[in-house]
Amino acid sequence: MIRGALVSVLTLVFTILAIAGVYSGHMRYSLKPEQIADGVYVFWGQQEPLTWENGGNIANTGFIVGNNSVLVLDTGPTQLYAEEMIAAIRTVTNLPIRHAIVTHHHPDHAFGIQSFKKNNTNVYMHPDSRSLLAKEGPILLGFLETLIGTNWITGTKIDRPTHLIRTERSIDVGGRIIKILPFANGHTPGDLVVYDQETRTLFAGDLVFHGRAATVPHANISIWLHHLDVLIELGWDTLVPGHGPIVTDQIPFEELRSYLYFLEQTATESVARGDTLAETLQTEIPAPFNQLATVKAEFQRSITSLFRKLEAEDFEASLPVY
């Protein structure tokens, strides 16, 4: 019996050591760009929560190749991701990577900045997103480490952009004009979207989620819904969402709009009734929203965030004015 127990313990130890070895010495994202239009490439993120298995690779990133340079869309969740992204771009072109647009400050989009700066790349963000990255970045990095593990984030540091974009700007990558469009106070206080005029391709960042539950910790849903109307009118043929598969029509917009309405309505009505947060979190997620990727976890997080904001607003409104 003792011998059998010892064998079991040793087996468990060796298994743990084997897993540790795999995830400390051989961490790889194995990024492979997919061409979706002439000179336009995407690295597709997984429709999953942040886990140690995926290393935070849950958001779509990409790049656009001009005649004399490359423009990158988002820098990924870690230093390792950004380095692999640069290496993958090099399998397509040797042109300099002169520009990187960070659509907003969330970890899965913005934590690879340092690697691109070391590559002498100009990194652009909205100023309000830059401020949030500086303020919340260290906390979010700790949160990311908890979810995906220390080995994935080795060497990752919160860095700052080299350029800020508050108004519309055009970047020429060599016979190809890329428009950078700011959207304030929707999904986050400062989002950027990227439009390639040549192929009519729009990278929308997290202003558009497709097939995945939207996240709202920094969102103003009413303004976000207005931003969706503006995005529809931009004249694109192909849209790359921040999360999910490619978009070629307005149906994903309607699905996202309906889900955002559902979140806002659920939180608003619960607070108005005097429900507790615990009661509100028991709300059954109706079809078709219950089919969205990561919806259970994101619904809990979104409702908690919205509920607390509404409670704080009600409390402030109840204070006497002198």
What do these coordinates show?
The protein has ten helices and twelve strands. With 322 residues, the chain is an alpha/beta fold. It has a domain at 27-249: Metallo-beta-lactamase, Chain A (4-Layer Sandwich), CATH 3.60.15. The longest helix has 24 residues, at 2-25.
What characteristics describe this protein?
five-stranded mixed beta sheet, alpha/beta, Metallo-beta-lactamase, Chain A, single chain, 322 residues, disordered N terminus
Provide the fold topology.
Layout: H1 2-25, E1 34-37, E2 40-43, E3 61-65, E4 70-73, H2 79-90, E5 97-101, H3 107-110, H4 113-118, E6 122-125, H5 127-148, H6 150-153, E7 163-164, E8 169-172, E9 177-184, E10 190-196, E11 201-209, H7 221-232, E12 238-243, H8 251-273, H9 277-280, H10 295-318
Parallel strand pairs: 4-5, 5-6, 6-7, 11-12
Antiparallel strand pairs: 1-2, 2-3, 3-4, 8-9, 9-10, 10-11
